[in-house]
Amino acid sequence: MKAVLEAVQLRKSFGVTEALRGADLSVHAGEVMAVMGPSGSGKSTLLHCMAAILRPDAGSVVFDGRRIDALGDRQRTQLRRGAFGFVFQFGQLVPELTAIENVATPLLLAGQRRRTAIAAAQGWFDRLGLAGLQGRLPGELSGGQAQRVAVARALIGRPRVVFADEPTGALDTAAGDDVMELLVDAVRQQDAAVIVVTHEPRVAAFADRTVLVQDGAVDDGAIEVGAGAAG
Amino acid sequence: MNATLWLGRRFALLGDRAARTRTILNAIGVAVGVALVLLTLTALPSLSGRDHRSAWHATSAATPTSAADRALWLATPDHFLGQDLFVVQVAALGPRPPVPPGLARLPGPGDVVVSPALRDLIAATPYDALGARFPGTAGSVLGPAGLAYPEELVAIVGRTPEQLRAVGASEVSGIAASAPGALDVPVVRVLLTIGAIGLLVPVIVFIATAARVSAARREQRYAALRLVGGTRGQVAVMAAVETSIGAIGGTALGWLAYQAARPVVARTFTFDGAHFMSADVHAPTVPQILVLLGVPLLCAAATVVSLRAAQVTPLGVTRRARTRRPGWWRLTPVAAGVAGLVTIASTDLTDTTRSSVTTAQLLIGGTFGSLLLGLILAGPLLCSLVARALSRFSRRLPELMAARRIAADPYTTFRAVSGVAVAALVATMFAGSAAGVGANLDRPDQDALRADAVEILLDGHPDVPLLAALAATPDVLRTVVARQDPAAPDAIAVSCPDLAAAVNIACPGPPSAFGRIPPGLGGIRRLDPPDLALPVHAIYVVTGDSSLTTEEVRTLAARLAPGAPVSTGRDLVELDRRQLTELEAGLQAGLIFVLLVAAASITLGVVAGLLDRRRPFALLRATGIQLRELRRMVLLETALPLAVTGVFGIALGLATSAAVASAGSQRWTLPGPGFAVSVVAGLLLTLGVSATALPLLKTATEPNSVRFE
């Protein structure tokens, strides 16, 4: 099967610190992949480079047969808006917008009419068990509810790849499992790929495949096939 | 509506409480700033409006024709107890003579038209001291169109043509519509411009600070939008729309506040001893439109620029901190300004030839510009140097942290206090000049009229009745007659000891000219005893300290030698004193205004800094730093740059006033203790007001602030 997203020999430094030292990784459509590793190993940097957030110093990132690592800011922004979705640990919801407006944001930014975007967002509230919370501000939501809103926002644009960086890091176990279940179910229905960066084995257990990042490179020897708990 | 625009509007108006508070704070800041800018812009129109209103006073035979018939016109500037009094005697020479503004027709012989203030003054003053100057029937009152300012004293006295021809009145065929005024004096324009800069810089800093309240939180939000696909352009548009909404609301509020304040300003502020007509207190239309359109644009631009300065990435915000230390080159403009001061000090500003005036204007303007630019450029360098010194010698954590923070970004640190530094420069410059003027006033002017003497320039007016009347006036101490030889019109003949009773001269004087002498006299030739056959040129009357006697002498002169110019030593001294008092009062008001704006600005800056750093502060508290130590740190971050750059501005202001005093051959002294107390109290007050933001530190750094969400 052909990879939907592939990173080849990625290198990335921040000043004198080498975060990535030739990392290779690929993910296929419909695949849920967990990226684990100790703190400072470079797993988040790898995710950010593959998600067109950071530009690698060397190596390539290929999405759907097209190199995206050297694209300009505008094209990378278009990719993030249309082809990718994001669920991070925190700092992702806009505090001034209601939950439903947060979910509709990618469509609004893409130029859709507000009524259409809000209507599209409405469907996700029922689907993710958020009914009744549409008008709440992020500050009025619990951590689990906020993450489910973030999942809805990540999926509303029907992305090809969803990037999740410690999506359950700020949640208790039950809420974390709940969010992961919703996320994995939803992306499978859309045949999207998911890359989850986590240090929690419970979260990795939801993945089809788990890879280990160590010292800025993907440790091939440590690759294991996950149980695919949700699948 | 475009979604980007909608989101911008949404963030400004319909966000959470914090967003609304931020918008309201921005709007209030902009409103205060706009009102102050517009009121500052009223200064020139107020003065030029007054000049324009009083232009008719300059009517003369040379005034262009505007009426079908002619009139006889004799204008006499007069005074009453230190107040200017304009008296014009008129006689129509036909049915349609020129008529001054504020009148429906010229008063006929025996009719007197007075301004409302003069009407009230006459009613409240003994007749011999004032009312007797305007013989006739007091009829109508001069309308507002004929008044330069509300309390102006004006009398238009109707006479017969024969009466006026006898005293040499001019024939006029029109009323002057323009005349040189205060604003035509280049130095006044330069000084007003400098004053306006001193007032406007703190206001602009205030507006910019208001626009940046909670900037960090806003930038975080835009980072979140960048993550989900917002382009840099979309984010810039949203930020611009968000800020513009607060700014537009604030601008509208500011304009309303300006309109409401106009009559208050007209009633409150004085120039040359007089208030302003409300209609004259208005900002010119074009600058007003520029401010109303420009301020929201400026705020939007400031927000977009600050977003550019912060790298808003999908992962958050990294501020592009200018890590480069401010270089020594920043002292170059100050050095150029100091060189300019040295040049000014060696220039003769009393030379009033056109080329000299232009050179002096360029020199003063260029030097002040260099000093101002130098202060703004050198400010960050000074902050950096002091912070580095403090970090080297500090022993306690709050001092060290404050020093490190200032040293890390001395540019932002200085920006917060730059308004105070500029105001300190301008205020000290004016205060130094005022102190010098005061010192010169206290020194008796050689060859000037004594304060208790009245000079009546007769030159052709009958002298006998006046001398007889003066002799019969009980409170007149002495009368000195100066005669003139028609063959030598540039000299007068007078006994030196007699003249010394009325004029500050030493006797025996030089045998010919005494140099600068009372107004109207070109030179004095001493003749002891004077030739009594020569016609009388002037009468000097020594009245003692009684102001009322002086006014009675004036009244006698007006009655018995109508049109003869009368002046007193007190007039000149009082005019100077009045202007000095006004300068000092204006300075105080300007200083209070600037310090209040600066205090508000710094307070906003402290609030914004606390809100932006609530997490790091909360973490510091969580790790054991006490609240009072954080407070000391925050206060030090403000007090240190405030003191350093304020002292620098004061030093430059003192140097400027000393140089200008030297160039004008004036004595210079340090501003009095009152000014020093005002400055220190003002700076402490500024710091005190900004300290009112400190209670926020407690709530903003509660332990739950260490949480990310």
Number of helices of chain A: 7
Low-confidence stretches of chain B: 511-523
CATH level 1 class label of the domain at 3-90 and 158-225 in chain A:
Alpha Beta
The residue-averaged pLDDT of chain A reads 85
**Roughly how many Å apart are the termini of chain A?**
18 Å
Radius of gyration of chain B: 32 Å
Q: Into which percent range does the helicity of residues of chain B fall?
A: 55-70%
| CATH structural architecture of the domain at 3-90 and 158-225 in chain A | 3-Layer(aba) Sandwich
Structural class determined from secondary elements of chain B: alpha+beta
The largest sheet of chain A, given as strand count, sense and whether it forms a barrel, is: 6 strands, mixed
* Proportion of strand residues of chain B: 5-15%
Order of neighbouring strands in the sheet with most strands of chain A: 6-7-8-3-9-10
What does it look like?
The complex is a heterodimer of chains A (231) and B (709). By secondary structure, chain A is of the alpha/beta class. Chain A is built from 7 helices and 10 strands. Chain A has a domain at 3-90 and 158-225: P-loop containing nucleotide triphosphate hydrolases (Rossmann fold), CATH 3.40.50. Chain A has a 6-stranded mixed β-sheet with strand order 6-7-8-3-9-10, sandwiched between helices. The two termini of chain B are 31 Å apart. In chain B, strand 7 and strand 8 form a beta hairpin. Chain B is built from 21 helices and 14 strands. Chain B has a 6-stranded mixed β-sheet with strand order 4-3-5-2-1-6. With 709 residues, chain B is α+β, with helices and mostly antiparallel strands.
Brief account:
The complex is a heterodimer of chains A (231) and B (709). By secondary structure, chain A is an alpha/beta fold. In chain A, 34% of the residues lie in helices and 29% in strands.
Please give the structural blueprint.
The complex is a heterodimer of chains A (231) and B (709).
Chain A: E1 3-14, E2 17-28, E3 32-36, H1 43-50, E4 58-63, E5 66-67, H2 73-82, E6 84-88, H3 99-109, H4 114-127, H5 143-155, E7 161-165, H6 173-190, E8 193-197, H7 201-204, E9 209-214, E10 217-225
Parallel strand pairs in A: 3-8, 3-9, 6-7, 7-8
Antiparallel strand pairs in A: 1-2, 1-4, 4-5, 9-10
Chain B: H1 3-13, H2 17-41, H3 43-53, E1 71-80, E2 83-92, E3 111-114, H4 116-123, E4 137-141, E5 153-158, H5 161-166, E6 170-172, H6 186-211, H7 215-227, H8 232-268, H9 285-309, E7 310-313, E8 316-319, H10 332-345, H11 354-393, H12 397-408, H13 410-441, E9 453-457, H14 464-471, E10 478-483, E11 492-494, H15 496-500, E12 524-526, E13 536-542, H16 547-560, E14 566-568, H17 569-612, H18 614-622, H19 627-663, H20 673-691, H21 695-700
Parallel strand pairs in B: 2-5, 3-4, 11-12
Antiparallel strand pairs in B: 1-2, 1-6, 3-5, 7-8, 9-13, 9-14, 10-13
Helix pairs in contact in B: 1-8, 2-6, 2-8, 2-9, 6-11, 6-13, 6-17, 8-9, 10-11, 10-19, 11-12, 11-13, 11-19, 12-19, 13-17, 13-19, 14-16, 17-20, 19-20
